[in-house]
Write a structure and sequence with these properties.
The chain is α/β, with parallel strands linked by helices. It is 39% helix and 19% strand. About 8% of the residues have low confidence.
């Protein structure tokens, strides 16, 4: 698969500008984005057997697209880790989707080491072939997709920031009856 890095950089620049203005998360908000896309394209799973929508039914799911050498991802990961720990007993499942930006990030042994070093205990899908990325139509690192208990994507946040707002989305989805 060929990635047009120039186009990706242009889009990323726009998103970073929006994030800097505090607008990206708000521009991505809607009532619903439709059913949760597939996670089945992952080549391997860390910290978990393979997961997909049927296995996650009845849970609130945060899908976090990230890559280990992305500074924006590194800044958002402590928040994602915290949410995964604090809300697990209330029904939140965090799924990290590691989709590499650079060739050296395809090294699964290095990824396993980074997952351990970063304290990531939640499931991580290894998406070296961009199958999950493409199934979700994702274009950003980090990108957070919030899925309700019925399996509907209800909120999307791209880039860093608005952690309080994202946590409120988690809390609201957890408060909804399944």
């Amino acid at each position: 698969m060929t990635i047009d890095h120039r186009a990706l950089l242009k889009v990323g620049g726009v998103v970073l500008a929006l994030v800097g203005l505090g607008l990206a998360g708000h521009l991505m908000a809607r009532d619903s984005y439709g059913a949760m896309p597939s996670l089945s394209g992952a080549s391997e799973w860390l910290n978990s057997p393979p997961l997909d929508a049927p296995a996650l039914k009845g849970k609130v799911v945060l899908v976090d697209f990230w890559t280990w050498d992305c500074i924006n991802c590194q800044r958002s990961l402590p928040h994602v880790n915290d949410w995964a720990r604090r809300y697990a007993d209330q029904g939140l499942v965090v799924v990290g989707v590691h989709t590499p930006e650079y060739a050296y990030e395809h090294d699964v042994a290095q990824l396993k080491s980074k997952v351990t070093r970063l304290g990531i205990g939640y499931p991580v899908a290894v998406d070296n072939d961009y199958r999950v990325w493409n199934a979700w139509g994702n274009q950003f690192w980090p990108a957070h997709y919030f899925v309700d208990r019925q399996g509907q994507v209800r909120h999307v946040h791209v880039g860093e920031g608005d952690y309080d707002g994202q946590e409120k989305v988690i809390q609201a989805l957890l408060d909804e009856k399944g």
